[in-house]
Amino acid sequence: MLLFVLSVGLSVTLGLMNFINLAHGAFAMLGGYTAVWLMRQFGLPFLLTLPLAFLAAAAVSILFERTLFRRLYGAGELNQVLFTIGLVFVAAAGATFVFGTGQQPIVLPDWLRGSVELFGLRFGIYRMFLIVVALAITGLLYFTLERTRFGAQIRAAVDNQRVAQGLGLNVERIFAITFALGSGLAGLGGALAIEIVGLDPSFGFHFLVYVLIVVAVGGLGSVTGSFVGAALLGIGDVAGKYFVPEIGSFLIYLLLVAILLVRPMGLFGKR
Amino acid sequence: MFAKTTYAIALAAGLSVSYQALAQETVKIGLIMAYSGPFADTANQMQAGIDLWLAEHDGMVGGKKVELIKKDTGGPAADVAQRLAQELVVRDGVDIIAGFTLTPEALGAADIATQGNKMMVVMNAATSVITEKSPLIVRTSLTIPQLNYAFGKWAVEKGGVNSAYTLVADYGPGHDAEKAFAKGFTEAGGSIVGADASPVANPDFSAFVQRIKDANPQSVYIFIPGGAQPPAIGKALSDRGLTPPDVKVFGQGELTLPEALESMGDTAKGIITTFHYTMERDDPLNNEFVKAYRDANNGRSPDIFSVGGFDGMHLIDEALKKTGGDTDGAKLVEAAKGMAWDSPRGPISIDPETREIVQTVWIREVQEVDGKYQNVIIDQIPNVKDPLHGAAK
Amino acid sequence: MSAVAPASSDPVAWLRRRSRLSVFEIVFWLSMLLPFFFFPTYLTLASQVAITALFAISVDLILGYAGIVTLGHAMFFGLGAYVAGLLSARLGWGEPISGLFIAGAFAGLVGFVASYLIVRVQHMALLMVTLGLGFLTYELANAMTWLTGGTDGLSGVNTWPIFNHFRFDLWGYTAYSYSLVVLLLGFLISRRIVNSSFGLALRGIRENVRRMPAIGSEHRWHLQKVYTISAAMAGVAGALLTQSTNTVALEVLSFQRSADVVVMLILGGTGRLYGAILGSIIFLLVRDQAAGLNPQYWYFWIGLLLMIVVLFLPKGILGGLSRLVRRNG
């Protein structure tokens, strides 16, 4: 489910805004470092750092969106890809500069550690926690996008900028908020991921590929798709390793290629 | 074409002659390491070890000023390492090449060392075969079989188990570790009940751990690269209840590096690892080393990479003293053969036949000391040679 | 390469005019010989630049001319590199020129098979499929340690002297001459392709896929053809790398390499063969110099360069230059 938490934000930027933001990993890293730094310097509890990680990534992303990204909305896919990769490079160098190259471990509160016995199977508490968070995010997002006025505005703005503008919607602002939402979710995902995968300056690159796969498989712009995609890949990956460890590492890529050939828009793709 | 070639060789020879003249006052050491990319942290720690040694010796080796020329490979790129080695020899006129974070780097540069007659000091890369690739390679780090073969034997003879399940990262060092451990383990009468390899870049271990649980062995042997994975595997094991004392967990020291212990918490308790350097070892030389290292690096502790760099510099220094400052590769390597000294890791020496390091292998167990978990030495195996090279001779 | 309307109505003559060598080009290729005289210590770097440029041209053929966005082309580069390496290390055949052909043919064959998948998808899905295939190949090579040497790389490659005469020397003389000749050949072939009616058809596909069938152009088949050619060329580039370094590491298949080459293209300018060459030169020189100055943070500059190019020179450096020339000329 970790994959979901990391990728849902990208699904928002990529799917809703059609902007291929590979710097997603950089925002996740930012969120991660924010959480670590707050816990280290100010001794804040882990749970409190999560919303702060979200806010930090969102705030920084608004800055970038206003100054840089907005110029690229109309650019080709490739330019978006390269620009944001460039940004990841810069972010990685920055993180190395500020925090050094080492791993940044975090210490979880006691109630999130260990595991519980349920129906004869053991589950890590932290993983359960992640699943709960993932479900909460999905619910909130689904509600926001499908059931509120703001969600309708976003969809309108994405579908047809001009008409939306003509109807008096402030498209620029809507885009900025959407982008911040996506990046904020990345930051949150980054903070949540440290416990399982650690954090160092190459974080931004490391998970990029997995996250892209999840979004591509799930379908662009579909939160449900990301959720299913992440679950499918997660389960497929684990099952693959469990039953046929010899090919465990390629399974995920085989799945990806196979699914995309059958459904180029992903499982829940709308366009 | 030929005219050009002759001209260039003449030119380059001219360059190297002028460098030779310069070499009277300075020694140039070219460092080839993965300063950027996923292994940047390893390279960083090696560099800190090198820098500490130089700081303690006023930046001199063999009575001359050292000039370090650092080159970045960005990761396990053999071709880049080869080019950099070539440039160091041809363009920068270095006297010695050193560093080598990763095996492919060392393999890529080996030919250049031979052709250019430069001593090549491998300060980290740990695959056995490296030292066979050039007669001018000397290693001051470790070989993976060296640690694990002896450890496999120890696990049966003193660890009190006779079945093990191995789980290693699916790449060269992992396979080496698994082979060496299994060899030692079975020779001592134990049996390996299962072996799996996990993808290097995918730190979700739950599936593998479940497989281990199904096989129900008395012990698990784990080899994974340091970094993010030790805490991940530690948690996966404890989630499934595969923890000491019910199931013994063995591994190479990367599994319980201090950073890993910090985030593993209780899950690390009782894990037994094999390593050639233990930071906590109470020994005057080591204590001094650890203290100086922390002072120089904002409180960060040294690790095996630091000690590899530190000892590598010591070796270069001693070899130069022996040759009287002559930087000829063959002479330097000759001087390094059989050299023995006390390092922060314990007594070490260079095997005159294989140019490999010979050292003590420490067996450590994670125990609680003053409320913090750390690696406590429970046994030692002195003067271990690399079994593959030892066996070949 | 501005799209000037043809002066005469004879398309063949127009194509022929497009493929004439200009004075600038001759000067450019002659300048490629400069390293021999002025920077003899940079020859190894120069040969790697030439190899990378050939790889970049192969990607430009599909990305710049046919509009196939790829993030996995290192797959073919790596295949070529491994084939050339295995020929020597496992079969003891180290003759370089035949090695190039075999490696190119093999990569081309795999490219042909892969092209059936590639032409079925577009946009984001295409990006992901190429990426997936690239990773798949990487993982395969990693898993087949008995064959490829896995993460430690393949050693024991021994390339024989070219024509039994020119050894690969420490200075990189032979390596550079050899790579440069192969690059020139690859370049001329590519030029011939893009300035043929086939090349025009590809550009048509890039501009408007839907309309091509309407004017009777088999667009899928065209795409498959160019993809195969491009794969073969990437394979040759990989084989060159193997032969000039005598090692093969897993890294030749890495995502990093696939991404780097696309970066170079964008730097230089896509849809221009010289853009590919220029981009490789700039990228590798900047990287070499920046990494020399500061081994830990050099990629910061690469990142910055990328962002600047994308923002201010969306058509790459060459594109920007040609715009300037047109504005002032």
How would you describe this structure in keywords?
heterotrimer; A: about 270 residues; mainly alpha; 12 helices; 2 strands; C: about 325 residues; 16 helices; disordered N terminus
Could you characterize what this model shows?
- The complex is a heterotrimer of chains A (about 270), B (about 400) and C (about 325).
- Chain A is mostly helical.
- Helix content of chain A is about 75%, strand content about 5%.
- A two-stranded antiparallel ribbon of chain A has the order 1-2.
- Chain A is globular, with a radius of gyration of 19 Å.
- By secondary structure, chain B is of the alpha/beta class.
- Chain B folds into 2 domains: about 25-140 and about 285-355, 3-Layer(aba) Sandwich (Rossmann fold), CATH 3.40.50; about 145-275 and about 360-385, Rossmann fold.
- Chain B is built from 13 helices and 15 strands.
- Chain B has helices at about 1-20, 40-55, 80-90, 105-115, 145-155, 170-185, 205-215, 230-240, 260-265, 285-295, 305-325, 330-335, 385-390; strands spanning about 25-35, 60, 65-70, 95-100, 120, 135-140, 165-170, 190-200, 220-225, 250, 270-275, 340-345, 345-350, 355-370, 370-385.
- In chain B, helix 2 packs across helix 11, helix 8 (about 230-240) packs parallel to helix 9 and helix 11 (about 305-325) packs across helix 12.
- Chain B is globular.
- By secondary structure, chain C is mainly alpha-helical.
- Chain C contains 16 helices and no strands.
- The radius of gyration of chain C is 20 Å and the shape is globular.
- Chains in contact: A-B, A-C, B-C.
- The interface between B and C is large, with 47 and 42 residues.
